[in-house]
Write a structure and sequence with these properties.
The chain is α/β, with parallel strands linked by helices and 513 residues long. The protein is built from 17 helices and 14 strands. Helix 3 runs antiparallel to helix 4. The longest helix is centred in the last third of the chain and has 37 residues.
Length: 513
C-alpha cells in the first residue's frame, strides 16, 4: 500500500510527482487562494486520495459542489478532454470513480440530522455562538455549573432556557456562592437564545447526539467521506463556525493518544476557516491553537481552507505543515503586503520567485509544499493539481436521496428524542415547591381557624397573639412560588462540590473512555 497521496505534478514540465506523506498528514495543512482559483477541486481530490488510502474524511460543502464525490466522473463531461490532457502531463492514469459518502445536515434536509446536546457544547462555545459579553458569559457559566452539580441534564434549548429562569428567580441565593448574578444578564442571554432559535439553532441541540465513531468508518477498505451540507448553514456563519469547532473539540476530548500513526485516523477540512477567527476573543483563539497543536497526537489532521493565509492567526498558521497555495491577487498595498507574507512562509526555490508564482498560477495550478520524511517543509514547487476522479459539480436530488437511503446512518438519527431533562425536572421541582407552599398556607389557615374557635369558646386568647406565626410559616409562604423554590435551591446547593462534571479545553464535557 502506498505511503503517500498524490496531489499533482510539479517542477520542470510538471513531470515530478508532488505527494503528501500519510504519516505526516496529521501535521495539518492549508488550502488557500482567491475565489475561482481551484480551492474546492483541490479539497475534492485530497478527499478522494485520503479515502482511497483508507482514511475517513469530514468536510463541509459550502456551495453544494462537493456532493459530486458520491458519483463517478464521466467521459461525456465537457472538461473530459482537458482533464485527460492534464492527467497525461502529470503522469496520471485517470480513472473515473465514485467514493463512499455519508451526507449530514444540521437541518435534516440534505443529509442525516446531526445534533449535540447543550451540555456537550459547553458555556464557552455557546457564549461565542451568541456573542455574549464577559459578564453574560459568567452568568451562563453559573447556569452550567449548577446544572452539572445538581444532575440537571441540559439537552436542548428549552432546558437551558428553563435553567436560566431558575437562576434568575434565585439570583440572590446563587450570588452568595458564585458571585453576582444580574437579572439583566439573564434576560440578555434569553434574548440571544431566542434569536438563535429563530435562526434554526434549535435543530442543532438535542438527542440522539452524534456518535463520533459514525464519522470514522471505512467501507471496503476506503475511508468514509462525511459531507456536511453547509449552504443553508452559511446563512448563520457563527453557528457554522461554532458547530465545526465543537466537533473538533469533541474529537480532541474523546479520541485516545496514538502518537505518530502510519496514517491519520481522520482528516478534518475546515472550509471558510476565516469564520472561526472573525471577531473571536483571544482566549478562544488561544484554545484553538492549543487544540490544533495537540490533536495531531490523536491521529487527526486539520486542514484550513480560506482565501488568504492571513485569515489564520500566526500561532495556528505555524502548525500547518502541508500547504497548497492557489493564486492570490495584489490589487492594493494591503494585498501586496499579504502576498509577500504568504511567500515568505515557504522555502525558496531557485527556479522561480515564490511571490510572483503565487500571482501567476492559473486555475487548477498552485504552489505547494509538503513535509518530508523528517518533518521538514520541502522546497516550494509550482504544481498542476490532478483532476478529480469523481463528478465535478453537485449531484441531483434523486442521487442524493438514493445515497442517503442506502447509508448505514439511515434512520439512526432521524427521530429526535425528548427524554426527561432540566426543563421537565425543574418543572417538577417548581410544582412540588408550589404544593409545599399551598400546604403550608392551608396548615396556617387551619391553625388560625382553630385559634379563632378557641378564642370564641373561651372568650380569651390564652396568651396567644393574633399576629403570632412561626417564622418557618412566613418563610414558606413569603414570596409565593419564588420563595418556596428558593428554599429548595438553598437545600440542594449544600454539599455538591464533590459532584462536578469535568470539562475539556473548549468547555465540552469530558467523557471517560
Amino acid at each position: 500500500m502506498a505511503d503517500h497521496i498524490f496531489i499533482g505534478g510539479g517542477a520542470q514540465d510538471y513531470g515530478v510527482a508532488q505527494t503528501m506523506l500519510l504519516d505526516k498528514a496529521n501535521r495539518h495543512g492549508l488550502i488557500a487562494g482567491a475565489t475561482g482559483t481551484g480551492k474546492t477541486v483541490t479539497l475534492q481530490i485530497m478527499a478522494e486520495e485520503f479515502s482511497a488510502a483508507g482514511v475517513p474524511v469530514f468536510l463541509s460543502d459550502v456551495k453544494g459542489d462537493l456532493s459530486g464525490l458520491a458519483a463517478a466522473g464521466s467521459p461525456n463531461f465537457k472538461l473530459h478532454e482537458a482533464f485527460t490532457k492534464r492527467a497525461k502531463t502529470i503522469g496520471l492514469d485517470l480513472q473515473y470513480d465514485s467514493f463512499p459518502v455519508t451526507f449530514w445536515d444540521l437541518f435534516g434536509e440534505k443529509g442525516h440530522p446531526i445534533r449535540a446536546t447543550v451540555a456537550e457544547m459547553g458555556p464557552l462555545l455557546l457564549a461565542r455562538l451568541m456573542g455574549l459579553t464577559d459578564v453574560q458569559e459568567g452568568v451562563l457559566n453559573v447556569a452550567f455549573r449548577v446544572a452539572d452539580e445538581e444532575g440537571l441534564p441540559l439537552l436542548d434549548l428549552k432546558d437551558l432556557q428553563a435553567m436560566l429562569v431558575w437562576v434568575g428567580q434565585n439570583a440572590k441565593e446563587l450570588s452568595l456562592r458564585y458571585g453576582n448574578v444580574a437579572s439583566s444578564s439573564v434576560g440578555a442571554i434569553q434574548r440571544e437564545l431566542l434569536v438563535l432559535e429563530n435562526q434554526g439553532g434549535s435543530a442543532l441541540f438535542g438527542e440522539p447526539a452524534l456518535d463520533l465513531s459514525d464519522m470514522m468508518r471505512t467501507r471496503d477498505g476506503r475511508g468514509e467521506i462525511n459531507i456536511l451540507a453547509a449552504d443553508q448553514l452559511m446563512g448563520s456563519p457563527r453557528l457554522y463556525a461554532t458547530f465545526l469547532l465543537w466537533l473538533l473539540s469533541e474529537l480532541f476530548e474523546e479520541l485516545p493518544e496514538v502518537g505518530n500513526p502510519d496514517k491519520p485516523k481522520l482528516v478534518f477540512f475546515f472550509d471558510e476557516a476565516h469564520l472561526l477567527f472573525d471577531d473571536a476573543p483571544k482566549v478562544l483563539v488561544d484554545k484553538v491553537e492549543q487544540v490544533a497543536r495537540l490533536i495531531r497526537s490523536k491521529g487527526v489532521g486539520v486542514y484550513f481552507v480560506t482565501q488568504n493565509p492571513g485569515d489564520i492567526p500566526d500561532d495556528v498558521l505555524g502548525q500547518l505543515g502541508n500547504r497548497v497555495q492557489h493564486a492570490l491577487r495584489a490589487f492594493t498595498a494591503k494585498d501586496r503586503k499579504e502576498l509577500k507574507t504568504a511567500a515568505e512562509t515557504y522555502r525558496d526555490n531557485s527556479a522561480f520567485d515564490t511571490a510572483e508564482a503565487i500571482q501567476e498560477v492559473g486555475t487548477g495550478e498552485a504552489v505547494t509544499s509538503f513535509l518530508d520524511r523528517k518533518g521538514i517543509p520541502q522546497v516550494v514547487e509550482r504544481t498542476l493539481i490532478r483532476p478529480p476522479s469523481s463528478q465535478l459539480g453537485p449531484i441531483d436530488d434523486a442521487t442524493r436521496k438514493a445515497v442517503m437511503n442506502a447509508s448505514a446512518m439511515a434512520g439512526k438519527y432521524d427521530t429526535p428524542l425528548d427524554r426527561e431533562s432540566a426543563h421537565e425536572m425543574l418543572a417538577k421541582k417548581a410544582e412540588a415547591a408550589a404544593k409545599e407552599a399551598e400546604a403550608a398556607e392551608a396548615a396556617e389557615a387551619e391553625a388560625d381557624e382553630k385559634e379563632r374557635e378557641f378564642r370564641n369558646a373561651r372568650r380569651y386568647d390564652g396568651g396567644r397573639s393574633e399576629g403570632r406565626r412561626s417564622s418557618s410559616s412566613r418563610k414558606s409562604s413569603g414570596g409565593g412560588f419564588g420563595g418556596a423554590l428558593a428554599s429548595v435551591v438553598a437545600k440542594e446547593l449544600k454539599g455538591t462540590t464533590g459532584r462536578r462534571i469535568v470539562r475539556g479545553i473548549l468547555g465540552s464535557l469530558f467523557k471517560a473512555r
